[in-house]
Amino acid sequence: MEQASSSNSGERLEVTVAGDEGSPRLDRVLAARLPELSRSRLKALILAGQVSMTKASVKTAPIRDPAYHVGPGDTITIDVPEAAPAEPGPEAIALDIAYEDEDIIVINKQAGRVVHPAAGHESGTLVNALIAHCGASLSGIGGVRRPGIVHRLDKDTTGLMVVAKNDRAHQSLTAQFADHGRTLPMARGYLAFVWGVPNRQRGTVDAPIDRHPHAREKMAVREGGREAITHWEIQETFAGRDGKPVAALLACRLATGRTHQIRVHLAHIGHPLLGDAVYGPHFKTKASQLGPKGQAALTVLGRQALHAYLLALEHPKTGELLRWEAPLPEDLVLLEGALRAAL
Q1: Hey, which residues are catalytic here?
Q2: CA–CA gap between residue 80 and residue 244 (Å, rounded)
Q3: Fewer CB within 10 Å: C terminus or N terminus of the chain?
Q4: For 302, left (φ over 0), alpha (ψ -120 to 50), or beta?
């Protein structure tokens, strides 16, 4: 049984433990009984002392241990404060919206746009644009610095991103991203222009990723790092001015979601992204193998040639399988044309 009351300072929820929640742990009982609140939100409320319990008519002090065991008949009280307004402010930044309803919004992110505020990028981010577009519905969801954000794209990677507009959607999307399509229908596809041509049509890079041992802003393949798996397949190959293969277009699918994963993995197998100054700087000399138009297109690009073209997921409310595809942005269309022409 759940009851709720409201006040100017937030909402008070009461849950009576039935005993059939599947676990005696406080956090798991609350997750089972209050699906409208994400597990991370419930854990934060517990740790903040916002949860207490009445056992045998005696009210306890706040319980701050998510693993605390409760029993049938116990009454749990949860004080849910008003969602703290997101620290970033609204900014009138145009969004390329592929889809939107009351639960989610799918954005086709442009190059140069940081997803959320961070050191050196306190404004002009996707979050600032989302707050302006969605209003209060995003405030506090996923944390005050990252409202609604369940995954990210690098600043200079373009393409599709989904954002949660409420806690229920956030919880569902987080679970789908954590699953990486192993048992759920989520899929994420990327198009990557790389130097050189792999020696087979398709392959998988299964190599753990961790922070670079010396350059902390970079990631690297390292023993003992977090599992990272990238599947790739050649879509097209391109010849240089001498007629020999110089580059390829790969379609990549992620089986995990590590920072810079595609960039690190493709560099690891000797095929870094065109334009990637972080993971492929020593390949700059290869640009001389391109024709004048190819070199000019690469200069104009000024970023890694990576685009998140495909996103498929299960709608968090209806369960419907949704799929979107985003065409290459103009700078990559220009690069592709120049590579095909070998001019």
Answers
A1: 154
A2: 64
A3: N
A4: left
pLDDT digits (tens, 9 = 90+) for 40-86: 888 888 988 889 988 767 777 788 889 899 888 889 999 887 655 44
How far apart CA 181 and CA 257 sit, in angstroms, is: 11
C-alpha separations of 301 from 68, 76, 109, 110 in Å: 54, 56, 16, 13
The dihedrals phi and psi of 221, each to the nearest 5 degrees, come to -70, 120
Q: Return the residue matching tokens 């130097």.
A: 195
Per the DSSP assignment, residues forming a β-bridge with 221 are 209
Name 124's Cβ contacts closer than 8 Å, sequence gap at least 6.
91, 93, 113, 114
Of 166 and 57, the one with more pLDDT: 166
pLDDT digits 0-9 by tens, 271-318: 999 999 999 988 778 888 998 899 999 999 999 999 999 999 999 999
Q: What is the pTM of this model?
A: 0.73
Which residues, in sequence order, are bridge partners of residue 237? 248
- Whether residue 4 has pLDDT greater than 70: no
